[in-house]
Amino acid sequence: MADPYSILGVSKGADEKAIKVAYRKLAKELHPDKNKDNPKASERFSEITQAYDLLSDSKKRGQYDRGEIDENGQPRFAGNPFGGGGGYSQGGAAGGNFDFGSGGIDLGDIFDGLFGGGGGARPGAGPGPRPQQAPPPKGANIAYEHLVSFTDAATLAPQRIMLGDGKTVEFKLPAGIVAGQQIRIPGRGQPGPGGNGDAMVTLKLGKHPHLVRDGDNIRIDLPISLKEAVAGGKVKVPTVDGAVMLTVPPRTNSGAVLRIKGRGFTAKTGPRGDQLVTLMIHLPTDPAELARINDVLSDSSVRENMRV
Question: pLDDT grade, residue 270 (50/70/90)?
Fold first, then answer.
């Protein structure tokens, strides 16, 4: 992955708000749901998500800025303490100084700094600077994909996934879940000298045969009979939490929207959204059924409710 600042298009001095604004703008443009025919957009979405994951974590961002970890959050290897380039010339006397290039670096000072000093140190010469040693690197992360059903995504039901080692682990879904979002399962990646890497799970969201997501709300078009529209009554409505009975007021027009509170998706910061039910008057196509409409209209309760 390239430099996370470049990926999000922000400067290294950008504050947390600027980074968040840049990520939201790019995520809106590159979201897989809006770019189903563009696989490169999905790759870019993963890149900006990984970049935001690093820069939005103040600890990781500080480590990256100091060069302690790379763009993938992995520790960087320590460099050669002797530097590179340049030959050396040896003095004629035993114990003489070795000159690396034109820097005039004394090997005695270098080894004193590395090993804490010892015999043969020059009088008055203090220990040299100790080079910072990077911790041993962790193993590589392993990428997975996991399909979350529409109902599970709305209710944030616990998920289970089988990893490459054949073991199954459980994880929680985040509030405000969106397709393409990544979940990190620590320590379930490849082994390494510094410990295991992580499992990175990219979430995919399934569809529902009747329900449609609208932000944090859920919508459904519900057919009702002419009698139910005119006289009112109770109708059964499917929701992600199970079917509920909804009261249709008398003299309801086709297209009217009724609200069932708290049956939508959980917001990223806040309560669950609602389910919005659009009532659609359904007339039968069978001539015999159409003929029975006269019987419906002749019903006394229907005639009473048709009066304004």
Answer: confident
C-alpha closest to that of 192 among 136, 133, 134, 135: 136
Report helix, strand or coil for 260.
strand
H or E segment to which residue 110 belongs: helix 107-115
Helix (H/G/I), strand (E/B), else coil: 219: strand
Positive or negative, the CA dihedral 66, 68, 74, 78 is: positive
CB neighbourhood size of 129 (10 A): 10
Pairing of strands 275-281, 217-224: parallel
Q: State the Cα–Cα distance between residues 192 and 64, nearest whole angstrom.
A: 20
Distance (Å, whole) CA 287 – CA 190: 67
The SS3 call for residue 208 is coil
Total residues found in the chain within this entry: 308
Rounded Cα–Cα distance for residues 240 and 150 (Å): 8
Q: Which helix (H) or strand (E) holds 58?
A: helix 58-65
Tokens of 107: 């090997």
Domains and their CATH numbers in the chain: 1-73 (1.10.287.110), 98-129 (no CATH), 138-207 (2.60.260.20), 212-306 (2.60.260.20)
Task: Tell me the per-residue pLDDT of 52-61, one tens digit each, with 9 for 90 and over.
Answer: 888 999 899 9
Q: Give Dmax (Cα) for the chain.
A: 123
Runs of H (alpha helix) within 205-307 = 226-231, 287-291, 293-298, 300-306
Asked whether 77 and 137 are in contact (CB, 8 A), the reply is yes
Q: How far apart are CA 276 and CA 123, in angstroms?
A: 84
pLDDT tens sequence across 220-258: 999 999 889 999 999 999 999 999 999 999 999 999 999
Span 86-109, pLDDT tens digits: 443 344 434 444 343 434 444 444
User: Per 3-state DSSP, what percentage of the chain is helix, strand, and coil (rounded to 5)?
Assistant: 30, 20, 50
